[in-house]
Specification:
With about 120 residues, the chain is of the alpha/beta class. The chain contains five helices and five strands, in the order βαβαβαβαβα. The chain has a single domain, classed as 3-Layer(aba) Sandwich (Rossmann fold), CATH 3.40.50. It has a five-stranded parallel sheet with strand order 2-1-3-4-5, sandwiched between helices.
Length: about 120
């Protein structure tokens, strides 16, 4: 079981991801934007952050950069979830400090497989 922070502003997608990951016995905290994510990261320890690229307020890139400068959770694994799937976008995400990238739309089964691979490392 892993402690996972899901940062996603789309409620339906957030509910779907929570459901499939809780079915795998993971503990999920949810944030609807970057500010809420940073607040949760300052209070809790996570094994993985699933982070939407495009959100209101802080973008996923800004959140990644903030996480990597934090004292707490700075080494947490981060997977960016993005509808921006060009190679340049993927490189930008990884250069910002994310560990993994998954293009939207994705199947819940594929997401679960990736999460299991990551938290099992």
């Amino acid at each position: 079981m892993a402690n996972i922070l899901l940062v996603e502003d789309e409620e339906v997608l957030r509910m779907l991801v929570v459901d499939v990951l809780e079915d795998e016995d993971h503990c999920i905290d949810e944030a609807i934007d970057g500010d809420e994510a940073i607040d949760l990261l300052q209070k809790n320890e996570y094994d993985l952050v699933l982070l939407d690229y495009m959100m209101p307020g802080k973008t996923g890139l800004e959140v990644v950069q903030h996480i990597r400068k934090m004292n707490r959770n700075q080494d947490v694994k981060i997977m960016m979830l993005s509808a921006k799937s060009q190679q340049a976008d993927k490189e930008r995400v990884l250069n910002a400090g994310a560990n993994y990238f998954m293009a939207k739309p994705y199947s819940p089964i594929d997401l679960v497989k990736r999460v299991e691979e990551i938290v099992g490392e």
